[in-house]
Amino acid sequence: MLDNSGFSELAQSIPSTQHMIRICLRLFIALVVGGLVGIQRELTHKPAGLRTHMLLALGTALFVITADEAGMSKSDLSRVIQGLVTGIGFLGGGAILKLTAEHEIHGLTTAAGLWMTAAAAATAGLGQLALSVIGVCLGLLVLAAFVKVEKRLGNRASHDAANRKPPDRMSGTDDGDG
Questions:
Q1: How far apart, in whole angstroms, are the C-alpha atoms of residue 142 and residue 41?
Q2: Which of 153, 124, 130, 3 has the alpha carbon at shortest distance from 64?
Q3: DSSP state, 48?
Q4: Which of 13, 78, 124, 158 could form a disulfide with 132 if both were Cys (CB 3.0 to 4.6 A apart)?
Q5: Could you tell me if residue 107 is left (phi over 0), alpha (psi between -120 and 50 degrees) or otherwise beta?
Q6: Is 84 exposed, middle or buried (0-12, 13-18, 19+ CB in 10 A)?
Q7: pTM, whole model, 2 decimals?
Q8: Phi and psi (nearest 5°) for 2?
Q9: Could you read off the pLDDT of 75-117 as tens digits, one per residue?
Q10: Where would I find the H helices in 44-100?
Q11: Pairwise CA distance, residues 104 & 81, whole Å
């Protein structure tokens, strides 16, 4: 059973209504950011879709907001963000698949999209809502508008890759000119 000091401590830890609205707005923008990228990835039938991007964005924002709300110094908050960047890099690494027989790598855009979503969510978590939305809009522009350019370049890149000799597995060196 809590005594009066326990209740007063609990009451002091509850933020004001205005502060809660600010926190909820940050979390909501992080969800929107993740949702926008996730919808684009879902519509293009990519492995990391709507729910993945939304959860990643929400989790990233929660870590940043929690650190900020705990009163961490800027350098401590910086370390939290560094940890997030590293962790999202590992998550993105899991999305990358190398198809050995075809000498092709798939999933780099998915990994980059996860990383960009986390960055935008961290930005929202820090209260930079406009910057977060602008970053995601530019990211969506890259994901949607540059598909045609990539396809045109892809035909050339695929032809070049088809003519490249695979690396020598015994020596660990590449016989190519790269």
A1: 12
A2: 124
A3: S
A4: 124
A5: left
A6: buried
A7: 0.71
A8: -85, 140
A9: 999 999 999 988 888 888 888 876 667 677 788 888 899 999 9
A10: 50-69, 74-95
A11: 32
- Which residue carries 């000091």 as its tokens? 5
Residue 110's contacts (CB-CB under 8 Å, 6 or more residues apart) are 41, 46, 47, 48, 92, 95, 96
Number of H helices, E strands in the chain: 7, 2
Mean of pLDDT over the chain: 82
Q: To which residue do tokens 């602008």 refer?
A: 134
Q: Which two tokens stand for residue 44?
A: 């293009």
**Length of the chain in terms of residues written:** 178
Torsion sign over Cα 32, 134, 25, 111:
positive
Question: In a 3-state reduction of DSSP, which class is residue 98?
Answer: strand
For 24-35, what is each residue's pLDDT tens digit? 999 999 999 999
